[in-house]
Amino acid sequence: DRIGPDRVVWRYDPIILSNRTDADFHRREFGRLCRELSSATKRVIVSVIDYYGKTRAAFRTLEAAGFRFPADPLKDPGLEALLRDLATMARDAGLEIQSCAEPNGLTSLGISPGRCIDGDLVNRLCGTTRRWRKDPHQRKACGCVVSKDIGINNTCPAGCVYCYATRGVEMWRPA
User: Fold this and answer.
1) pLDDT-above-70 percentage for the chain
2) N or C end: fewer C-beta atoms under 10 angstroms in the chain?
3) Partners of 44 in the beta sheet?
4) Are strands 9-15 and 43-48 parallel, antiparallel or unpaired?
């Protein structure tokens, strides 16, 4: 409330499809969050899970516990309809919806390419006209501008197994 909805960018990612988090799960949760967050933000950024080497290794643990994941989440037969529905829900809640570094682009589904670090948004919020350049150290489809990361890798206590930026929950377990 203190900083206003222009300065809050909500990320709904990664979208992980599995036998326990199917498309209907995401429709329910995304819809609920749209209703709860629509007054706190104007933009939501979505992305589909990327299977990095570390992610695949972590998923093997989940598969041993009964989870099942598509071999290629971008080729899942229900993904297109899910993303189209998320776009509709976002618009119905008055939110702009963008994608994060999706190589195929999702504009045909109503989701424009996004920038988590958006120079145009920074200029608008700060009243500046700085010329920004794309961050060359990000993935090709990433639209983010050059920035300084003030975080420190492997410090999040959540330990999400899908996260590429942490070693996982093992680092937080007592010795």
Assistant:
1) 93
2) C
3) 10, 97
4) parallel
**Long-range residue pairs from 62-69, CB within 8 A, at least 24 positions apart, any chain:** 62/18, 62/161, 66/19, 66/20, 67/18, 67/19, 67/20, 68/18, 68/19, 69/16, 69/17, 69/18
Q: Write the pLDDT tens digit of every residue in 47-81.
A: 999 888 878 888 888 899 899 999 998 889 999 99
Determine contact, residues 112/99, Cβ cutoff 8 Å.
Answer: yes
**Neighbour count for residue 100 (Cβ, 10 Å):** 22
How many CB atoms within 10 Å of residue 74?
Answer: 14
| DSSP 8-class letter at 45 | E
Q: pLDDT at position 171, please?
A: 44
